[in-house]
Amino acid sequence: MAPVTAPADTMTRHEWAAEVRRLARERDAVILAHNYQRPEIQDVADHTGDSLALSRLAASVEASTIVFCGVHFMAETAKILSPEKTVLLPEPEAGCSLADTITADDVRAWRAEHPDAVVVAYVNTTAAVKAETDICCTSSNAADVIRSIPEDREILFLPDQFLGAHVKRVTGRDNIHVWMGECHVHAGIDGATLRERVAAEPGAELYVHPECGCATSALYLVGSGAVPQERVKVLSTGGMLSAAESTTAGKVLIATETGMLHQLRAANSTTVFEPVNPRAECHYMKMITAEKLLGALRAGTTEITVDAATASKARRSVERMVEIGSPSRGGE
Ligand code: SF4
Description:
Layout: H1 13-26, E1 29-34, H2 39-44, E2 47-49, H3 51-60, E3 65-69, H4 72-81, E4 86-88, H5 104-113, E5 118-122, H6 127-130, E6 135-137, H7 142-147, E7 155-158, H8 161-171, E8 176-178, H9 191-200, E9 205-208, H10 216-223, E10 232-234, H11 237-246, E11 251-255, H12 261-267, E12 272-275, H13 290-299, H14 308-324
Parallel strand pairs: 1-2, 1-3, 3-4, 5-6, 5-7, 7-8, 9-10, 9-11, 11-12
The structure holds iron/sulfur cluster.
Iron/sulfur cluster (SF4) binds next to loops.
């Protein structure tokens, strides 16, 4: 078996996985991996899923330690929901360009301009930002979250402009103000690329993942009619995996971060799954390497903490999100 991403030059992937599992048992740790992690990380994890599914798991697992293979805001969300657990992020520099588009000060200043507004935050935000908001949402429950707010209340929606535009369109509300943030990875899945790929593959289906904010620019293009609806399936992680298992299409184009392809290809070896944009790769997600995971388990690093006051305020927003969101199969 081929060596993995250099945990040690002499270690095979099988030996590495066995050592990771042994160390996890020794540390009473559960390993959670986001769908966009490297294949070897997904394969060695106890659970793989989207951020909402992993948040739910973080709140319910019995292990005393969570090793979160994802990006920083996801580990923070796990800590907010499970303050009594130790949460480790193998690479603390694994950030998120979308979360970086807004700060807690920005939210306070925006709210001051609209004092009666309800502030809705996409889950791709820091704990400090979540603490300044009223309710969090994912891509899949964003419209339901908006509908749960009285029609006459103004809404401040942050930080993703594409998801904001999408919920405005599907709810028909015009009293939503949208923060103009975007994810650099999915900005690359643009209308021209989508149209070109769909036109070049007339028999192919197109799956767009709605739950990770990573797919919101594609979601926006589908909703606005830039690509034909009949060939498009907007699916959660679980729905995407189920559809992959049962599809008879020769080819399916995937409009999201390329890490998702690993699970889809494992689910169905006869259909060809191709990325709409093969360069749609999140370098933050890929910072979690085999070597980093092994190091985190050996040394107990890097522990993610959220101060109690921030966590308490943020928890209200996150718990509302978890109540309204529907569980997805990925990881559950
Ligand atoms: S793909 Fe984009 S939204 Fe997702 S973690 Fe990476 S930078 Fe953030």
